[in-house]
Amino acid sequence: MPHLKVQMAGISMDSPLVLASGVLGVTASSMRRVVDHGAGAVTTKSCSIHPRKGHPGPCIIPYEHGMINAVGLSNPGVDAVVNEIRTYRDECQAPIFASVFAGSVEEFGKVTRRIAAGNPDLIEVNVSCPNVQSEFGAPFGASFEDTAAITRIVKKNAGKIPVAMKLTVHCPSIGKMAKVCEDNGADVITAINTVGPGMLIDVGVKRPILSNKMGGVSGAGIFPVALKAVWEIHRNCNLPILATGGVSNGNEAAQMILAGAHAVAIGSAVYNRGVEVFQRVNEELLEVLELHEMERLDDLRGGAHE
Predict the structure, then answer these.
(1) Which pTM value belongs to this model?
(2) 129 annotated active-site
(3) Given 129, 171, 181, 237, which residue is catalytic?
C-alpha cells in the first residue's frame, strides 16, 4: 500500500508537504491548523532578533500567475517566536521548522542561538535578505563567501539542531552555492525563495500598487524556475532538498521529488486552494505512486536524473 512517510536530516514526517515560511507561520494555532489539514511539518515566519514592523499596506497582491509581496520581513522578534514554538510543541506532534534572518553574519549567530532555545526540529536560514554591511545591500545568498560564513556561524550556534540554508536563484550558480553550504556544515538546502523583485502598476491611478513599489514574486509563475534550481542542486551536492516555489498540486510536487527533493513546501497555493491544499496534494501524490506502482516517495526521488 503506497504511503507518503519521509525522512529528511533525521526528521520523520507523515507527509513530504511542509508549510512554507510566511503569514500562516505566525501563531501556534494557525500552524496546528495546517497540520490538521495534512501538512507533514510547518515552518515559522522568518524572525529576527528584534521585532520589525515591516512595510505598510498594500503589501501582498495576488495576480494571474501568483503573488507579489513586500511585507518587509515583519515579525514579533525571536523571543516571541520561541514562545509560539513551545506552545505548538505542547499541542502538536508534527515537526516544526524555525526560519531566521539577520542583517550581518554575526547577527545570524545570535538569532540562531536564541531560536535554538525553543528546540525546533530544524532551523531554516534565510540568506536572501540584504546584507546591511554591503555597499549596495546585496543579498547574502548572492555571495559564496558570505553564505559560507553564515553557514559556519549558524551551525556553531544551532547545537544539535539540523540547519537548512534557504537559497536564492539570484546568485552566480545555485548548484555551486548549495555545495558551498554542504562543505561548510549545512544539513539541508531549501530552494528557492521569492524571485525578482517585481512590480505591478494600477493603470487607473498610474502608480505602483505595492506601497513599497516592488516586491518578491511567488506562486505558480515561478514553479519552472524553482524546479530547475532543485534539479541543479541535486546534481551538485548530496544534501536533502526542501523544494519550495510555485507548487500547487500533486503533479508539481511529484516533479520536485523527481528532480531530487526530499520534501516540498507550499505557501502561495494556500491562497488559491485554501488550507485544504495540503490534503489534496497528499491525495494527488498517492495517485502518482499508484500510477507508477511504487510504495514510497523514496522510489520516485531523483528519478528524472536517471
Answers:
(1) 0.95
(2) yes
(3) 129
